[in-house]
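Dear colleagues,

For the upcoming journal club I promised to circulate an example of a predicted protein-ligand complex. I picked one with zinc ion because it came up in last month's discussion. The inputs are reproduced below in full, followed by the predicted structure.
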Amino acid sequence: MVQKKISVKQLETLKRSLHEMREREVKDIEDQIGQELNIAMTRKIDIAMDMEDWASLDLDEGIDHKLLEMRYRTYKEIADAFRRLEAGTYGVCESCGEMIPVDRLKVEPHARYCVPCLTRMEELEQVEKGTGKRSTL
Ligand SMILES: [Zn+2]
C-alpha cells in the first residue's frame, strides 16, 4: 500500500474537526461537572486521573466518573493532536513512524497510532488486564 502524505487541504479539514471535537468535549465535561473548565479544574482532573482517585475531585455525587474520565481522556488526546500539529508530526504513528492513513484520521482526527499498532497494543492491554492488577469497585 502506498502511503500518501496528508495534503494541506486535508490537514485544514482535520484541524477544523479537531477544533470542533475539542469544543464539544470541553462543553460536555463542563456540563457534566457543572463548572467551567479552567486551569485549576483541569489540574484537579489530571491529578485524579493519575491517582485513580476520583473521590478527591469533590464533585457532585451524581457524576458518572467513568464517563467523565473517558471524556477527559479524549480531551487530552485532542490537545495532544494539536501539539503534534504544531510540532509537524501530526499523522505519523507514534509507534512505528509510518503515516496514519488519512481515511483513519478523518474518522479519528486525534489518532496517534496506525491501525496495526493500535490492534497490537489493545491485545497487549487485554493481556495486562487479565493479570488482575486492577482493583474492582
Ligand atoms: Zn504504527
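Two points we might discuss: Residues 93, 95-96, 98, 113-114, 116-117 surround zinc ion (CB under 6 Å). DSSP finds five helices and no strands in the chain.

See you all on Thursday,
B. R.
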